[in-house]
Each structure stands twice: as C-alpha cells, then as structure tokens.
Amino acid sequence: MSNKSSERKRNKEKNKLLIAEVKKQQAIYGWTYEEMEKKIGVPKSTISAFMCGARDGNEVRQALTAFTEALNKEDSGQ
Predict the structure, then answer these.
(1) What is the Cα–Cα distance from 39 to 50, expressed in whole angstroms?
(2) 10 in Cβ contact with 24 (< 8 Å)
(3) Which of 23, 41, 55, 60 could make an SS bond with 49 (beta carbons 3.0 to 4.6 A apart)?
(4) Would you put residue 18 in left (φ > 0), alpha (ψ -120 to 50) or beta?
(5) Which residue, among 69, 63, 66, 58, has the nearest Cα to 11 in the 3D structure?
(6) 3-state DSSP call for residue 29?
(7) What angle do CA 70, 51, 30 make, to 5 degrees?
(8) pLDDT tens, position by position, 20-72
(9) How far is C-alpha 61 from the geometric centre of its chain's CA atoms?
(10) What is the number of alpha carbons within 13 Å of residue 9 lying toward its C-beta?
C-alpha cells in the first residue's frame, strides 16, 4: 500500500472517531451546527459535509478536535 493510500485510510479512521465524538458532544450539549459555526469559525455547511463524510480536510478536523477537547476540559473542570 502506498504512503498516500495509507495516510488516506488513517485520516478516514480519525474522521470516523472524531465524528462519533462530535455527535456525542452534540447529544450532551445540544449544539447545532450553527452554534458550532460560531464557536469554531467553520461554516456550518462545511461542518455538515465533514460530519456526513462528504468532505475531508485538516482545517475542519483540527477545528472540530479543538472544539471537542475544549468541551471535554469543561466537563473535567480544567
């Protein structure tokens, strides 16, 4: 398997895990894509496309990762 192919596969797996985490946080906090857009500065259409797997991008992944990490810190009282 080529390096690019391996990297794409790893990114897809990371995306699946991140999507699951974002969905969990949405269930806990009741966040909408509009609210997330305001919090992380990524258009809700981009968030939606990422969440359904139609879009892959480091920028979206990094923003959503930072968002979920911030919420997890709030939960743990840090």
Answers:
(1) 16
(2) no
(3) 55
(4) alpha
(5) 58
(6) helix
(7) 55
(8) 988 998 898 898 999 888 888 888 988 888 888 887 777 788 888 888 887 77
(9) 5
(10) 6
Count the neighbouring beta carbons within 10 Å of the beta carbon of residue 78: 7
Question: What are the structure tokens assigned to 45, written together?
Answer: 């259409």
28 phi/psi in degrees, rounded to 5: -70, -50
Residues contacting 51, CB < 8 A, separation 6+: 19, 22, 23, 33
Q: pTM of the entire structure?
A: 0.73
How far apart are the two ends of the chain, measured CA to CA in Å? 42
Q: With contact defined as beta carbons under 8 Å apart, do 36 and 44 qualify?
A: yes
